[in-house]
Design goal:
Elements lengths: L1 H25 L9 H13 L10 E4 L2 E4 L11 H10 L1 H9 L3 H7 L3 H11 L5 H16 L5 H17 L2 H4 L2 H18 L12 H18 L3 H35 L3 H14 L21 E6 L3 H13 L7 E7 L4 H10 L6 E6 L12 H6 L2 H8 L28 H4 L5 E5 L3 E3 L16 E3 L19 H6 L11 E5 H7 L1 H11 L11 H7 L4 E3 L5 E2 L10 H6 L2 E3 L13 H8 L7 H5 L5
Helix pairs in contact: 8-10, 8-11, 10-11, 13-15, 21-22
Organism: Gossypium mustelinum
Enzyme class: transferase
Membrane topology: Single-pass type II membrane protein
Length: 606
Amino acid sequence: MKVRHIVLGLLSISVIAPIFLYTDRVGSFVNPSSSRRDFLDDVSAFETSTALKEPIGVVYSDHSTVTREHKSTRVLSATDEERQQQQLYNPIRQVIDRAAPGLTTTLDSHPNASDISAIELEQQPTQPSGKIVQEHSDNKHDRLTEPADAQVRHLKDQLIRAKVYLSLPAIKNNPHVTRELRLRVKEVTRALGDATKDSDLPKNAVDKLKAMDQSLEKGKQIQDDCAAVVKKLRAMLHSSEEQLRVHKKQTMFLTQLTAKTLPKGLHCLPLRLTTEYYTLNSSQQNFPNQQKLEDPRLYHYALFSDNILAAAVVVNSTISHAKHPSDHVFHIVTDRLNYAAMRMWFLSNPPGKATIQVQNIEEFTWLNSSYSPVLKQLGSPSMIDYYFRAHRASSDSNLKFRNPKYLSILNHLRFYLPEIFPKLNKVLFLDDDIVVQKDLTGLWSLDLKGNVNGAVETCGESFHRFDRYLNFSNPLISKNFDPHACGWAYGMNIFDLAEWRRQNITEVYHRWQRLNRDRQLWKLGTLPPGLITFWKRTYSLDKSWHVLGLGYNPNVNQREIDRAAVIHYNGNLKPWLEIGIPKYKIYWAKYVDYETVYLRECNINP
């Protein structure tokens, strides 16, 4: 009997002691004013429970991240049976299983899983509710700032997956799923249409997206051969890359073709003007102020062009920003076909008080093949073969050089400025695809420090340097020039003609042209021989004088455009062509008076 009492006493101590230990922690959650009866009721409840369950905080799941909020507390040990029951009924694990399946398995499989759980719960800091709210608000912000084409991309991805599934044997053998997927493909394709952003999609696009997801899930359950899916995706990728290569080649060819093609309106304009010019008597065909043509105190511009409208924009934009228009003289040189039309345009549309001279290149009798190597080369059989033989059309490498402008001597007149203007000391050379936005007279007062050419450099970290234009595998080039030397731009160049004559620059140009008769030093064009001719003779101008890229780059910095004295439409996307970049056309079009009778008759519109 004594033994029995002793055993019962020990049992009561072993049962009640943990209860009192546990009540130390429970007390912080119980109202201090609660009665002893309530306390005993609580004790009874604990005694009848199958296991002592530790109060654990709420679990929040955000994607794969699980955040626990828990008060620091002492962890009670439990038997294996009790731990299994806790895992079975634990709402935390249910939440984890839903948010990140496999996570509980990974934790349970760890040899010290119980110790890890206890330590994590013990050391996890309390997370303020405000932080949780902040996380939810951040998630909401992320959803609000998702890409504008998120749904469009999702629909396109669905189409790719559906096409992959439809090509797999397991799906083909299931007629029901095949029909369903084909139907979904048609629906999604119709909903997608030509949309590029989510706002372009129809209202039922979300329903189509959900329906496709369900069909794809069915296909996923049937198809379990990952190797076949990967193989098909690789084949599709290869096919897409090949199609992209073909389309790029076609785009390049068509762009070059469009750049070389004269629009109907611009073809009509010189014909209409030429007809009108020859109705004038000889006295009406002359320009005023011809005494200013050789006055070195004035501001002289050289413009070589066969494009009447483009030349008009250059003159109009320059005069619009000139402080003293009467001091500006424009020397325009054109070919025989456009000579009468060019004169007629400026006779009927005089540029205010500025002086105009229009010359015919045929009048330069000194410019012949015996004097100019390039003129001799342009008429050679090898050059004609290079441009016009059909077998050359398939070559990408020379496609951009197959442009008539490279055969035009007008393009090479820039190397003969002292001969064209023998009494002038400085001339500003302008291309016909530029627009002037500021007064340019400051260029004449620049000290070029003994250099002949003032130009804006165009090199970046690895582009527009000499090795992009010259053949440095040839020893003549590699011995005389630096492949990393910075290139510069034609289009707006101030030339010191006095220094040009003193250094005999034209002869330097001729010597290198003779060396390049087989085009082994550089391809065609005027920039490569310009880089060579004016090597170590070019003064670098501030970049704000001349901003390039408006004829090929839709991402030219807007601030640079606004600050520029001259903007240049270099490239194939000229502003007078339909393929011109729309947002840049406005800078050019505002200097064209589309109400002019000749433009209306030729149906030339903005």
